[in-house]
Each structure stands twice: as C-alpha cells, then as structure tokens.
Specification:
Helix 6 links the parallel strand 7 and strand 8. It contains eight helices and nine strands. It is of the alpha/beta class and 289 residues long. Strands 5-8-7-6-9 form a five-stranded mixed β-barrel. The protein has a single domain, classed as Nucleoside phosphorylase domain (Rossmann fold), CATH 3.40.50. The chain binds hypoxanthine (HPA). The site of hypoxanthine has 13 residues, from strand 5, strand 8 and strand 9.
C-alpha cells in the first residue's frame, strides 16, 4: 500500500507554493466537471500544472485540466483548482483531499466546491444551481473516509463534527448574491449524496437516494468538504444539475457523460458569474467577523 501523507508532506507542498507565488489566497475554489472555466475569470493569474507541484496528484481524464490558478476573483485573493481528483479514477481519499490541507496551510479560510450532479428532486430542472446545505456521505457508510487512519491534531480532532459542514452565514450571503444575478429560476437548496461511481445509478438506487432525503447525486465533493471542515475551513458547495436522474422503468433515457459536460458548458457561465459575485460578498463578510 502507498504511504499516506504526513503533516510535513502537506507543509512542504504549501511552502513550495508560497515560495513560488506572491499570491496569498483567502479563498479556494475546487471546480467540478465542465466548470473549470472559472479559472479564466481569475485576474493577475499565475498558474501551476499539477505535474510541477511537489506531491500533487496528477489529473488523468480528458477535458479535465490539471492546473492550480492563483490570482483574484472579483477582487478577492483566490486559488482555483481547475480539475479535481475523483475517487473513481482510483485515487485513495487521502489523495483526493490532499490540496485542501495544503490550502489551509497556505492561509486559506474559505472553500468553495462546485460539482456536476444528477437531479433527484423532481422540482429541479437541468441547468439549475443547487446550494448544498448538507450531504450524505455514502462512502462513509462503508468505512471510506478521508480522515481514516492516523490522526494529526494539528489539522483537527480525531472525531470532528460535520453537522455544520456548509456554513450557515455564507449560505445567507449566497441568497443575496443570487438576487444580484437577476435569474428567473430560484437558487435551489438541498442535500447532496456522493456515490463512488463511475457508473451512473440504477433506477432502484435513484429511488432509494430520493427516499433517503437526497436532492442531488454526484461522484465528488463530500471528501473535500469533510477534510476542509476538519481543519477549520468554512465551506460552500454548489451542484450544477446537469441531468435529471431516471426514476421510471418506462423511461428510455439514459444518463451519459457527454450530456453532463454539455449541460455544464451551457450553465457554467451562470455558475462562474455567481461564484465570482459571491467572492465579493464573502470578502465583506470577512471584515464583519
Ligand atoms: N449521477 C452521479 N453523478 C453525476 C450525475 C448523475 O446522474 N450527473 C452528473 N454527475
């Protein structure tokens, strides 16, 4: 088995980055599939390929760029991950979440996570944005946690609470930011469930997930949020509903990755603009704290 990272590994990557950029980000954004365009909105950008950053896992899937972009989003100092590490690609969860602790050691205090997700809630339409209020960690049900293994109290406690994983104050700010957008559709809110993938869900699984209380289903985000909350970051999460999941045996439709990417492309601009507006409101929020 591969050796897990030690505190010093995270520290040396953070120090390497701090010594290779003058940027000092407060906010970090992890972009979901098809949502990496946010990185193009970064001003005074300085980008690093994942391959040049010591210990950083590498991105493997086509269409998923692997770059860390430092700079400013709407005047706020940020670092944007363009391309994330998915569990279904074979990465262990401690690798999936590696960047989060590096960001924390670099001084980041707020994490924004976006993902593409299938809509379980029948009220959701393709192209809707769902603010994540809570999650169901399906992998955790089977003992897969990014916090499994030796505990280092320098990051956080052995048994952390995650009942406040998605910051309540930030969520209120998000409603204000949404109003600035003048969108006709409301900002959806709900619970996101993560499955390991890479296959999409069966009809029976979708029915089960809806009954469990989930509104959207994806294959990412939850591990990063758990690790971020554990090390004291405030979290924000947004799912872009790229498809409505199939709930009926009468339906001839099937979920597919191209549809996910295509819907992502169409709605991405909206989500990027939203996150950008949000950054400014978080900045004033910081001052108030
Ligand atoms: N299921 C799981 N993950 C997804 C989906 C889905 O329907 N759509 C986008 N990501």
């Amino acid at each position: 088995m591969e050796k897990e990272f030690t505190y010093e590994d995270y520290q040396s990557t953070a120090e390497w980055l701090l010594s290779h950029t003058e940027h000092r980000p407060q906010g970090a954004v992890i972009c979901g599939s098809g949502l990496g365009g946010l990185a193009d909105k970064v001003t005074q950008a300085q980008a690093f390929e994942y391959s040049e950053i010591p210990s950083f896992p590498q991105s493997t899937v086509p269409h998923h760029a692997g770059r860390l972009v430092f700079g400013f989003l709407n005047g706020r100092a940020c670092v944007v991950m363009q391309g994330r590490f998915h569990f279904y690609k074979g990465y262990p969860l401690w690798k999936v979440t590696f960047p989060v602790r590096v960001f924390q050691l670099m001084g980041v205090d707020t994490l924004v996570v976006t993902n593409a997700a299938g809509g379980l809630n029948p009220r959701f339409e393709v192209g809707d944005i769902m603010m994540i209020c809570d999650h169901i960690n399906m992998l955790g049900f089977s003992g897969q946690s990014p916090l499994r293994g030796p505990s280092d109290e320098r990051f956080g406690p052995r048994f952390p609470a995650v009942s406040d994983a998605y910051d309540r104050n930030l969520r209120q700010k998000a409603h204000w930011a949404w109003k600035q957008m003048g969108e006709q559709r409301e900002l959806q809110e709900g619970t996101c469930v993560m499955l390991g993938g890479p296959n999409f869900e069966t009809i029976a699984e979708c029915r089960l997930l809806l009954n469990l209380g989930a509104d959207a289903v994806g294959m990412s985000t939850v591990p990063e949020v758990i690790v971020a909350r554990h090390c004291g970051l405030r979290n924000f999460g947004f799912s872009l509903i790229t498809n409505k999941v199939i709930m009926s045996y009468e339906s001839l439709q099937k979920a597919n990755h191209e549809e996910v990417l295509q819907s992502g492309k169409q709605a991405a601009e909206k989500l990027e603009q939203f996150v950008s507006i949000l950054m400014a409101s978080i900045l004033s929020c910081d001052k108030a704290i």
